[in-house]
Amino acid sequence: MSSKGGGTALTRRNYRLASDTDKPKATGIVNEKLLSDYLHHVFPSTKQGPALASLRKPLGFQELGAHLERLLSEGEPTEDTRDQLIEGRLGPQTVVLDHTSGFEGLLFVDDDLLGVIGHSNFSSIRATTCVYKGKWAYEVLISSQGLMQIGWCTLNCRFNQEEGVGDTPDSYAYDGNRVRKWNVTTTNYGKSWAAGDIVSCLIDLDEGTITFCLNGQSLGTAFTNIKMGPGIAYFPAISLSFKESVAFNFGSRPLRYLFSYLPLQNPPTADLLKAQKLLGYIKTVLSTSIDTQVGVQDCASWRLHGEPTVLITLAHIFNHFAPLMCKVYLVEDVLMSFLLGILEGGGSVDEHPLIQQLLDLFWLLMEDYEVNECLKQLMMSLLRAYRFSPIIPDLGFQIHYLRLTTAILRHEKSRKYLLSNKFTFDVLRSVVFFYIKTPLRVKEAGLEELIPTTWWPTRFDKEGKDERDPKDETADERLRRRAYERGCQRLKKRIEVVEELQVQILRLLLNNKDKGTGEASRYIFLNKFRKFLQENASNRGQHPTALCPPEYMVCFLHRLITAVRTYWDDGKRKSPGSVNSEEAYVPPQLFYNGKVDYFDLQRLGGLLSHLKKTLKDDLASKANIIIDPAEIQATSMDDLDEDEESGAAQRPFGAAAMGGALARPSWLSSPTLGRANRFLSTAAVSLMTPRRPLAPPEKVKVRTLAVEQRTEEDIEGSHGNDGLLLGRPLEEPDQPIAEKSLLEIVDGIVMMYNLSVHQQLGKMVVVSDDVHEYAVALKDTEEKIARCPARRPDILEELQKSQKVFAEKLNHLSRRLAWINATIYSKEKMLDVYWLLRVCIRTIEHADNTGSLFAFAPEFYLNVAMNAYSALKNYFSPANSMEELPGYEETLTQLAAILAKHFADPRIVGTDIKDSLMQALASYVCYPQSLRAVERIPEEQRVAMMRNLLAPYEQRPWAQTNWILVRLWRGCGFGYRYTRLPHLLKTKPEDANLPSLQKPCPSLLLQRHMAELLSMDKDMAASFLNSVLNQLNWAFSEFIGMIQEIQQAAERPERNFVDTRQLKVCATCFDLSVSLLRVLEMTVTLVPEIFLDWSRPSAELLLRRLAQLLNQVLNRVTAERNLFDRVVNLRLPGLESVDHYPILVAVTGILVRILVDGERQGISRAASVLLSDPCFQLHSIQHLLGEGGEASGSTSVATSTIPPVVGPLGPTVAASIPSAPGTMAPADRKHFSLHAYTDYISEEEERKVERMLAFLTEESKQAAASTPTSEEDLCPICYAHSISAIFKPCSHKSCKACINQHLMNNKDCFFCKATITGVEDYSKPAGS
Length: 1328
Fold this sequence. Notes:
The chain is α+β, with helices and mostly antiparallel strands and 1328 residues long. It has 42 helices and 25 strands. Strands 3, 4, 7, 12, 13, 14, 16, 17 and 20 form a nine-stranded mixed sheet that branches. Strands 2-5-15-8-9-10-11 form a seven-stranded antiparallel sheet, with no helix packed on it. α2 packs parallel to α5, α4 runs antiparallel to α5 and α10 packs parallel to α14. The radius of gyration is 40 Å and the shape is elongated. The N terminus is likely disordered.
């Protein structure tokens, strides 16, 4: 046996002590006298004093058994003594939760009947034992910090789904979620609790009081004069809401905090005494040496001295010690304390070989079932101790328990047993060891001593962003900031000690060289890890209690990345031809060769069964994988039977259903060792079984190799077998990447990030946001104090109180933020997420190279690439900047290429992932750095992206596409250089980091690509613009319809409320209308010939449609005292973005471009089309400059003279709508005018509008003076234009605009319904 580490395998036949090699002279048993002296030294009799040592009987191994029995029986309590201990208590000796009749509602109860999870609105359960006299205590380990009421109740208490412990007269409870105590009425009491806290519930039935303690600190007496007397006895009880979970300790394990109260369950006193005596004997053996020259003597240090005598002596001790070590109380109180004591001296774990030697002895001298149970209970005790230890400044408790865990796992045989054991050290439970909990109570965690000086940003811009510049800091601010940063560094160093221990544990679990006692640890861990991922992926949304909490996942992910990268780089050093961990990726063959189970997660191309059928030829030709037709048939049948097969797993009935492979209830909820959890329901007291038994977990799926059945060879491969990399496509380089098991772990890490890590990273940003909000509030309060007049001391006093509250809250939050920044948002954690982003990018690139096989890649790779980038940009700043990351710009460009290529990739079929890609691209083009990255991708990809963006809007989600085009234009359009709308500047944005609130950053390069595409491809240009015009027609019509409903609701005399959802949809339709108008402005500016070059087949129709829509929008928005005005003046919450400026400026931009900035011929055509539209009103154009009034010329009466016209926006109502009560008279109301927006509209733009107005005024006068066309020559459809087209073969006539628009959707004649085969120009004969 090695003196360090646990790498040597030991069996009962070949066991030798390590130091036997050091002392070859010690062979055989020592002489009788020396043996007798040694045994008397180890097992001294308490009745013989040292003076009688010479008279004592010789003691040999034959007599040792009886001698030891006699020593152990001394001091045992008698039966009478045992009976006296339980006075004042009624019920079974072993106290558990009453799962037969003492509960209300639905509950999961662990197999040991100590852990419980609520599964209905408000469930209650009590214990099996009650007390009526004396002082008693029990502990509750809080696993979730939600709504629970914990305390005591009598048998008379009746609970229901609304009332629980503390809501009835004879029940008393403490609620740390709401920080109150309950006994029918409620008052403030105690402190708030958090997951990982321990609540002690104390009842004194001599004094009639109930007290609660949190983590050993008394919260004060909660209740006095509680009801006592004959017939009154109190049970421990709890009520808890849905998904909340706790574990009870009535005394089956040592209570963590000792008071002058008795635990409800008697400690095993006799066994405790025996175990302590036996442990004392073991200590003596370890600290005694036998030398034939010197005799028996004490040693300075504990170690196993190499005499066979020692081994036989220990065998006698273990004969009694081993059975005791199967009891949880004794393992925790005796063994764990002893092992922790060995490590107390400090130093590395390697410096304490004694633990390894003791574990060797355990495996040698105990039966297998005994050592298994002992190790199981030891690890569960360590897990509980680690999880429920209070946070102290040096994290001493956590370090202590992690060091012992590391020492135990260094022992190879123990490690493999714990890894293999299904219910003990699987990934589910071991995740607890990688979590560092965040303290809610800063003072108790000692952060005040560690970070004595606090600091937060103090300078903010108009939008509330911190605009700190180190040069502007005062000397005091600088000192405070530096002191705070030093405190943060001290905290970070202490946390790093814990993290390093956690990584050491993972490195032990990932050891793949320990093959001496069977399969290497890594392969056992890998299969467990895959099972862990399956449980979390499969149960999401079905059984939330079976999921690993996201805060645990975050810590586990970071430690796993560190450990995997260490092994990866070790492998690179041994095999120089392989890939460095910086260049890590997951090869595409993992996704289709069936070696790794993705448990029905969505693939980019759809379901795996569908892909195997449709791409079987590609698999055969590209990857040499031939799918057996029988397998495809079996897969199809499997899909058909899917609902039936999973039925049992999805039914939440009974222990079997809840304890199955897919639906295991909260492993973490109760820190007790829960196996087949019980499911309790008031409706059915007995345990129910599912109608169909679950399929056995070892059933081999047709689709993939079952996780449990995989061996090292299946994973790593061997000669002629590629293992996980079977089926390498030709596009994939033929070079070693890394150990194949590491590739699968990296794949699992990516999946973990997708499951819940990203969501948790976003959740923890709340603390930073809170600091920011309180800092703004504090600064605002200080400014008010400075302005407060001296004559108002009352106001000053209130402001000073507020200032004190804000400052205290900021002190607390800034320390808490320091903890979160160290554990979650540190530079190292940021580099981990960045590494993950790069892994995903390279994986997607390699998978993309495989052509059609790209469809097999799981969707979560694309999701993680997008989310990891989002996290780096939004969550880790301002503490860490993304620009400082190595290779940052190159990575941005690679991600831009992925988004540009795949947002319209036909190989991707999922609508959700398509939407996510589109949204990510939309966000990408909002920020200057990422937009420049899009411009850096190869030109061919940029042009392809723009072509996809310009595809017709029908039959696809077009809003995001339109938003992308708008962002590429924003900053170039007419009056379109704003970040926020003028009327919203005084309001605070909900989130200044939103993409829509970023400063304009147009892309001239992508605009050029768009212009070239639309100019060269006439058909694409026509279909794109027709679709934009159609959507504008729809969006603005919907908007008008909705504001009519809102106005009607506002005019009703009774009080009414408009549905917020309706308001939101209304605002969205308005925003869509504005963005579609901006895209039209962009198109008109970049490619005016699409509308103005009438040699193009669709140009005239497009221009007429554009003019028609612009006139409709202007008329609706600018009419005097109109509907739009009234709704804007209501200023309803949700309609903040609805205003005159954005929509009128967008329309003005289009009009200026076609009427002022164009060539003379184009301007002439545009003017004639605009003026010939029946809805044109000069008054609407005059309104833009505030010139429109009640008598603005003859054209202003067009509203009353023109009959209702049914246009593309529905009927235009001629009569004005009655004004709502309170609407301002025209004289009182300020007219809209572009002149008022000097900060937004340049002088040159104003002059252009004035020139446009003058030009249109002149043109409209000339049009009015020209000879009117006779009614017979007008188009019989619109009565606005002259007849200019004749239909074939029926010879009916209309204007070109009407027939062209009609033929877009219908080929039948307006009048005779004959099919139109052609349209020819028509001009009236000269003589007519």
